[in-house]
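task queued by scheduler; priority normal; single chain, no ligands, no partner chains; default sampling; output format set to structure tokens
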Amino acid sequence: MAKLKLKVARSKRYNPHTRAMGYAARVITNGKADFEDIVAEACHNTTIHKVEAKMTLELCMESVAAMLKQGYIVDLGPVGRLYPSCTSAWVTSEDALQLSDVHPSLYFRPAADVQQAVKGATLAWAKVSDDDEDLAPEPTDTPDSGDNGGDIGE
């Protein structure tokens, strides 16, 4: 397997803890692989028609959504796992934690080989466009621990 190569750029960012502007690195991606791209890649060098592959993947994704809605952890095999999760404020006593302070979310934990591919990636600086310098502050619902995947939204 080829080693992952990531281009990173210095990007102006707002730090919500210090309330100061500074710089942080961000990954420059190669674009987005959409559902049609995944179907085309899955059918490459096979006799499966892309309509059959698309239908199969759509049925699988419907099942994934249904299982998540029922509160299950969903194992996506070679990709990783999806976990129903929540975030809340930290409080000093059990009674101080109110249900209104708890927010449901979804957590993704990549499979070991996916995690290793990303963590073992070769990094190189990319040229940042002038348009990228003035990014608005980003929301910070749940910080990513950096070693077990991350919160992927609500």
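post-processing summary
- Residues 130-150 have pLDDT under 50 and may be disordered.
- The chain has three helices and seven strands.
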